[in-house]
Amino acid sequence: MTSSAQQTYNEPGKMQPVLVTGATGRIGRAVIAELLAAGVPVRALTRNPAAAGLPAQVEVVAGDFTEPESLDPALQGVRSVFLLWTAPPATAEAVIKRIASRARRVVFLSSPHRTDHPFFQQPNPMARLHAEIERLITAAGLESTFIRPGMFTSNAQLWWAPTIRDGGVVRWPYGAAETAPIDERDLAAVAARTLYEEGHAGGDYVLTGPESLSQAEQVGVIGSVLGRQIPFEELSPEEFRRATEGIWPGPVVEMLLDAWGATIGRPAYVTSTVADVLGVPARTFRQWVSDHADAFRERPAE
Ligand SMILES: NC(=O)c1ccc[n+]([C@@H]2O[C@H](COP(=O)([O-])OP(=O)(O)OC[C@H]3O[C@@H](n4cnc5c(N)ncnc54)[C@H](OP(=O)(O)O)[C@@H]3O)[C@@H](O)[C@H]2O)c1
To answer: What 8-state DSSP symbol labels residue 123?
Structure first.
């Protein structure tokens, strides 16, 4: 266990587990890895424990945000909760009240909707939901830390890897829009710290990668790591709507188009929060691509 984890968990018999929600998703799994590496006991929430596929040290407990009373076994004896909300909003208030009746601290995965930069200031349903959950957490009297990541680096894999693997042209809107993608490993490391280390109550952390890169430049970085040129073709917003119709949820498409469109001509908002909290620099986009290069490489024929 690290010395900082010991500060919180050093009393024998008082090793209360941290409850990680969203435990089976992209972020939750990375947060669990960081907590385990720090020697912190972890309990994971999932709707389907049989399919969780989490490390053996993790105590996996069933629960569903849409049925708040189903959370009671998972909340038993817990001090801190990592809260990640992807469920419909209707039961958020009841869930947060339930958490507040049993736990003391919540670290909530939100977004930078309070940051004064056009990329983050376009009204959208996700920002409204995050603002409402923050209000509920504060009203419930919980000690809170709000983690506000910008774009995730792994979106590059989700969005562009299939085309790049097939040797195709990346067709995308707003190639000149600049973002500063955050490596989820850094995001998870910061979230884990705030769960096991004292001193983060009231923390409000906007997390970004270390550099502003246009979307076309990000595709260029992937090409440079792979050692080949990846052709990029600009789509109009309308062409992008048509290309994603029936595949992506409409509100997500509109949220992204609004944010990219609003940021044209400006560098991305960049913070030093990862380095400030962890004491090591945030990983660059190139580093993330190098570590995930196989996801973009052509698959050998079977
Ligand atoms: N993509 C970005 O650039 C970006 C930027 C900032 C913030 N975010 C935020 O990141 C979050 C998404 O994180 P992610 O990528 O890790 O998500 P993900 O991979 O889609 O995982 C979703 C998780 O939510 C759990 N879940 C879904 N419905 C649930 C319910 N009714 N009750 C309990 N758990 C439920 C799932 O657990 P089971 O299926 O096991 O129950 C799963 O572990 C969102 O809040 C999003 O707003 C994203």
So the answer is: -
